[in-house]
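[job 4471] stage=fold_predict status=RUNNING
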Amino acid sequence: MSEPRRTRTDVVIPVYAHVGLTRRCIESVLEHSGPELGRLVLVHDCGPEPEMLPMLRAFRLADPRIIVLENEHNRGFISSSNRGLSLCAGDAVLLNSDTRVTPGWLSGLREVAEAHPRIAAITPLSNNGFLCSVPVLQRSSPTSLFEPLELDLSGLPLYTLMPTAVGFCLWMRGEARQRLGLLDPRYGRGYHEENDWCQRARGAGYLVARANRVFVYHEGEVSFGGQRRVLDVLNLRRLVRRYPKYLEETAAFEARPEAHQAARYVAAQLARRSPHSSIG
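[job 4471] inference complete, writing structure tokens
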């Protein structure tokens, strides 16, 4: 009897700057994704470093699963993301180039997706991930705090439902993406576009989840430079105009014990590993 066909997931990485971080991200995906990885779509968005595109092309030559899309001019994060996602017929992960995935990350996200057919968006735990941050919710921590990575997350619930996912690592169900469309280009260069997509998904009856047994490193705040704060404020206003209950629902989630369960669980493990360190 033949084995059941394994569902593969495509990964899309928009690429602009920071060659070293980008190389490390791509290498981690290739090393830690296993047979669950379908295609790895790299979207080059005409960044400032001349060595970036040759590096991406070298990855493509070395691995047949890799596709490199080369924008003719700088299109911004959302447009580049949508260009990559448009190649993905099924489930896909939109991944920032300043992340590092860890062993079993893709199968862990798949496990959450298969736990409930209405889950449309999933984000894992991270050192820098807003509602998915550990060891303190909504607070970023240096990646060095977790290295070497020796977390045992098996004692946590498989997932926690949330009002929104986080864009550094966003698993998107293919069926939901086909129904809802891609990220809204009206959010310009980026910020809060993933929150908008999640609110559309929830409005259509889908669910959004945090994968409590998956961890992805995230450097954070390296893509937008000095424009970060302006984009954040402008696009949050746009988001709240569309979804007036967004901030209220997010605050309500933050106040619930299950929102903090993963962070406290990880904090306890880190404290046992380094009993003299201070967390929180």
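[job 4471] summary: The two ends are 53 Å apart (CA to CA).
[job 4471] exit 0
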